[in-house]
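A further point concerns the way the authors explain their paired sequence and structure data. An entry of this sort, consisting of the sequence and the corresponding backbone structure tokens, reads as follows:
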Amino acid sequence: MTPSMNTASVAILPRPSGEGAAPYRVLPHNIEAEQGLLGALLVDNRGLEKVGDFLRGEHFFVPAHQRIFEAIRKINDRGQVASPVTLKIYFEQDADLKEVGGADYLAELAGNVVSLANTADYGRTIYDLHLRRELIVLGEDMAHDANAPGIDREANDCIEQAEARLYKLAETGQVRGGFVSLKSSLTTALEIAEKAFRADTHVTGVTTGLRDLDQKLGGLHPSDLLILAARPSMGKTALAVNIAFRAAEKHLLSGGKEGAVVGFFSLEMSADQLATRILSEQAGISGDLIRKGQVKEADFQKFVQASHRLTQVPLFIDDTPALSISAIRTRARRLKRQHNLGLLVVDYLQLLTGTGSRQSSENRVLEISEITRGLKAIAKEFSIPVLALSQLSRAVEQREDKRPMLSDLRESGSIEQDSDVVMFIFREEYYLSREEPSQKVGEGDEKFYERHAQWAQKLQEVSNTAETIVAKQRHGPIGTVRLFFDPNVTRFSDLDRTYSE
């Protein structure tokens, strides 16, 4: 039962006069729910425990109700009891409260409460109506912006701003969430452990398609943000494409029991370039020869057959350049709804923009922080692993040992902090092949040939190998996984050696 007072006394918009006059449009609201909640809180402040984590004063429709709720919350935060008596002194001269009956209105709110059981329901109703009002305002602002074109502002800018406001509206004051009992968490943990125990590969997450990397990581886990970083030409896009394709292929071959539906945001390469890489790797034909048209008839037929075989693989590529983090979230949500997205890959992180890229361009570190937080939020919201590629600073090139470290991450503070796993790719062959020794002035032939032979032997030892360095893993050990790399078809595969701990 709700308060039985005259709700017209708190009406905000007057009714128009005159015969045939159209009524004013009133934004969605429920004054009875607001009165019922405030009355319940004045009777028992413990009701704040049910709504205090998501409800704020500005969520109320009536200005007087906004002030009353904030007063109850502030007094309760000080350890005092908020009641009509304790609040009366604060509202005796309050102009907003005078419009609804003065300080006596507080006693009337509390006096008309019959049950305290509906406190949480009232709170959710008030918050839902607040969201609806904000959406209406947002829609009207979008229409206004669309009808006011400017030279310095394109339609895409309006879309990104609207997406950012929607993102902010969805993130603030979430009604969802709260504590989960240890019993419930243990049940989930046991289910994950049982899945790993019964699986042939003992992989709990999405497979990478690489045996030793799966063994080190246990697969790619839901809600995790994984960073794959390297200097240019190390093969980070190639490894990401390999992982994405093998996860999607596994999903197809297992009937959805393993692997995942994969979304791949390629901000650097086009969709057809990525598709060519996949076809090259699957057909075993050099991508360079394909681009130059230097393939034999038999090889071309293999290429065509591979393309037919791969059409059913659930790998979706979005090659839109310069996407914002809010656009990534919107498109990922759409793919989750339509195809049950299970793994998201972003190539690469530094090519994304924040929600206010023009304003934050002077401080790229803050923008990267927003992006990494956004990617981690996407991983948690959709309960999927997010694999984001990242560039490394040039500091790597200045060291004798060019194996990357966490400090080599560009804007490393936020990337390292927000990620659950950080992996680096290092190919010693790349650097050694560019360091072929030349004969020094005054150096004898025998000495030079010895140095050259040592270099050639070392180059042969590391030929077609790559190291995936797991520098951070929140849920497991760090270490190095050695892989085989074929640059002709940009393929990473298992190397028949054990990885180092």
Strands lie at 225-230, 261-266, 315-318, 341-347, 386-391, 421-426, 465-473, 479-486, 491-494. The mean pLDDT is 79.
